[in-house]
Specification:
Number of strands: 11
Distance between the termini: 25 Å
Strand order of the largest sheet: 1-3-2
Largest sheet: 3 strands, mixed
Strand content: 15-25%
Number of helices: 6
Oligomer: single chain
Length: 225
Amino acid sequence: MFEYKLKYGKRRTIAVSVRGGEVIVHVPEAYAYSATIRRRTEEFLRLKSAWIERKLAEERTATEECLPGLSRHKTPYLFGTALPVVQFDGKSAKFDGKTLFIPAVSTADALNDALIRWYKRYAKTALEKRLSAISAHCGIKYNSFGITSARRKWGSCSSSGKVLLNYRLVVLPMRLVDYVILHELCHMKVLDHSAAFWANLAAFMPDYKMRRKELKNYGFVMDAV
């Protein structure tokens, strides 16, 4: 039997999700004092056990093939390269260009929180710099930039010209980061995903189909960091 974490909410049903190698069971708040709901939860998990085990195996396979060792409390990556980690007596994570220094904390969750805060800080500068460079190279202007923590989108572009990029992009290889950035910039000319949009993207990135297909293999990163 797998380990799982309970997440309480104002809901009537039981649900389960697999994120970053963790099994999250969503239960009603009444679970805390209702033996009936606890029994239903255990029965639900027995019925879903095959699906849960399969999802866990799929995540492990995807992780080891794309970014070996990546998980909530293991090897951090920067643009597809694993970073050596050193814990130190400090309040926030810092990166010297080679090594990531993480505050020495007492719990794995606190360590993960420190890492995510660093990812977001680093992404704000690094992704904006890359966006600016690609914008200048392609001659496609944008009006503003921001970082997002969305769980299912790598990026977006609004009709007002604002480009949002997911902070988790800094984990991916740069070729995939460039694909996402160029994809969003091309929406400055065509907001939808019509044939005109893809033709415009292909003009700047002839191998975009290969990169787009490869990006799908990294969906697990959304839940891993």
